[in-house]
Amino acid sequence: MQLFPHAKSGQFFTSYLVDCSSYLPWLMKRYINKGGKIINKTIQSLDELYPLYDIIINCSGLHSYQLLDDKELFPARGETIRVIAPWIKQIYVQEIGEEITYILPGSKNVVLGGTCQKGNWNKEINQKDRTALFERCCQLLPSLKMATIDYNWVGLRPCRSRVRLELEPRSAHTKCRVIHNYGHGGGGITLHWGCAQTVVDLIQDLINNTAINSKL
């Protein structure tokens, strides 16, 4: 452990890394090619959609805090720095208490992080946070001091006591059925295929047991 003299333990493994800046547009392209449609519209309540659809899949993430008045939801603010450092080929992660420092090489740049500030709704760059996380990453891998900054990023993870993945009980006021799928925190990409399959299973169960005439 000469490289990291303060570390008590370490591990090495090979894994996949999903570059969301490429992966998410690819997923959207698949959706469009299969006949999916996109409607950009702000709604204040799911009541606005009930007359239009037979089944609604609510994947509104942190917006379910307002949309459903789900007070179990809370943001965990994350700030990262993207740098150009093509010589970095491996992932580095350091955990000290609840503080996690990570260096993630991707296809376009290297992600330096990060922060996890629970209850913080601020989506603006914080210079103090930015400086602190960059210094931590440079302590972990000093060659980063030679890297070129690409851009900074702030996001809010949609956290909850547990993921809400369920069929909402039938309402007497509408025939529309609602399946909720949100609250994945920072694990959305890790969990998304499995959660999507559960949603498909719930839809299939509805189709097999309910007469549904799609209006899509």
TrEMBL record:
Subcellular location: Peroxisome matrix
Pfam family, one: DAO
Record's keyword annotation contains Flavoprotein: yes
Keyword Flavoprotein: yes
Keywords: FAD, Flavoprotein, Oxidoreductase
GO biological process: D-amino acid catabolic process
Domain of life the protein comes from: Eukaryota
Main location: other
Gene Ontology terms, MF aspect: D-amino-acid oxidase activity; FAD binding
Gene3D superfamilies: NAD(P)-binding Rossmann-like Domain (3.40.50.720)
GO cellular component assignments: peroxisomal matrix
Cofactor dependence: FAD
PROSITE patterns named among the record's database cross-references: DAO
FAD dependent oxidoreductase domain residues: 9-202
Name of the protein in its database record: FAD dependent oxidoreductase domain-containing protein
Native source species: Patella caerulea
Lineage per the UniProt record: Eukaryota, Metazoa, Spiralia, Lophotrochozoa, Mollusca
